[in-house]
TrEMBL record:
Transmembrane segments: none annotated. This is Pseudouridine synthase RsuA/RluA-like domain-containing protein. One of its GO terms (biological process) is enzyme-directed rRNA pseudouridine synthesis. GO terms for molecular function: pseudouridine synthase activity; RNA binding.
């Protein structure tokens, strides 16, 4: 549901109405802006909810945010607490407030989602219980991290009115190809049982990458068992088109197994080098703690809160937002392209679904 609250200028009849969104608000066609080959999401107000972890307890509310969510400056969090954009258990608290374990913390902010490539999400088959689509590269399958509306599930709901949808498998965000979604939970369970599936794979969530693990001196292996079959289809002497058949399903399995063989995907910057700089989780944790409740607490505005005074053609500027006036969030370089990795076919007992090959899946003769 939406929660509306009107903020009034002191001694002034002018006012601004802000609509805070929750995960219950479905994406709509007008939420998207197509610009320079990218699909952007019009920034919107959103309530992030997290609960105080053991290591957070005993810190001031401002220090907690400044230390755990480094994507914004300290002064922003001071202003956000004073203004009521950061609340504890639905109440405005002073900047010196000491948080306690399990308390609910709400962060109301002007949310900017990263853009994705502006390719269509084409529907391949729309059956009673199953939907198959061709997923474009750079678009995540479902809400995660900074992405909520700029996802396959969000775009399908906004552009085709298709909801609810239950992804039965996932593709890495930068991977394109066949995506199977069930139209109900029972069908999703059926497919998941069929597709659940030898260098072991160990995924490092902080760095956002996996490694192929081998036995140590004691014979112990850290990663989870994983197996992929590779068949070379063609080559020009420098690059090859390779058919990859994952026997198991682990995070980045195909990518890390190709790296392990000494033949990584040619444009996979994450696995082309063994020495990859770890991605900082700073500023992203609030996104991972996105709210899952269907309502927002009553929101109170103070007269000393910044007001929206300017606007652009595409979206309104929030003067307190650390991303405005840019459309993309801070730190996004806008140069990201898709991997040369494409899901072509999924099959099981009595069923097969396929997706067309991408343009890059051929080598010049």
């Amino acid at each position: 549901m939406n929660k509306r609250k009107r903020e009034e200028e002191a001694g002034n009849s002018n006012s601004m109405e802000i609509v805070w969104q929750t995960p219950a608000n479905p994406p709509e066609p007008q939420d998207y802006i197509l610009r320079n080959g990218r699909r952007h999401v019009r920034p919107y107000y959103f309530e992030f909810i997290s609960h105080v972890k053991n290591r957070w307890a005993g810190k001031t509310i401002v220090d907690l945010f400044a230390e755990e969510f480094k994507g914004r400056p300290y002064d922003y969090y001071v202003s956000a607490v004073k203004c009521g954009r950061i609340q504890v258990d639905g109440e405005i608290v002073p900047v010196s407030y000491i948080v306690k374990q399990s308390q609910k913390i709400s962060h109301f902010l002007h949310r900017h989602e990263p853009p994705v490539m502006a390719h269509d999400v084409s529907v391949l088959q729309n059956e009673l219980d199953v939907l198959t689509v061709c997923k474009p590269a750079s678009v995540p399958v479902h809400p995660c991290g900074q992405y909520r509306k700029n996802t396959i599930v969000g775009i399908l709901q906004a552009e085709y009115g298709l909801a609810p949808l239950f992804p039965i498998h996932r593709l890495d965000r930068l991977v394109s190809g066949l995506l199977i979604l069930a139209r109900n939970a029972s069908k999703a369970d059926f497919f998941r049982q069929q597709i659940m599936v030898d260098a072991n794979i160990d995924y490092n969530a902080r760095e956002g990458r996996s490694t192929a693990e081998v036995e140590n001196a004691n014979g112990a292996v850290k990663g989870k068992a994983a197996s992929t079959k590779f068949t070379r289809i063609s080559t020009d002497g420098t690059h090859s088109i390779v058919l990859c058949e994952p026997i198991t399903g682990r995070t980045h399995q195909i990518r890390v197994h190709l790296q392990y063989t000494g033949h990584p995907i040619a444009n996979d910057m994450l696995y082309l080098s063994e020495h990859v700089i770890g991605r900082s989780a700073g500023g992203m944790s609030a996104d991972r703690a996105a709210a899952n409740s269907g309502h927002s607490p009553e929101f109170i505005f103070h007269d000393n809160c910044p007001r929206e005074e300017n606007s652009r053609d595409d979206f309104s500027i929030d003067p307190m937002c650390t991303n405005c006036p840019n459309l993309a969030p801070k730190g996004y370089d806008g140069l990201e392209e898709g991997l040369w990795l494409h899901c072509f076919r999924y099959s099981g007992s009595g069923w097969t679904y396929e997706c067309p090959y991408p343009d890059w899946a051929s080598l010049p003769e």
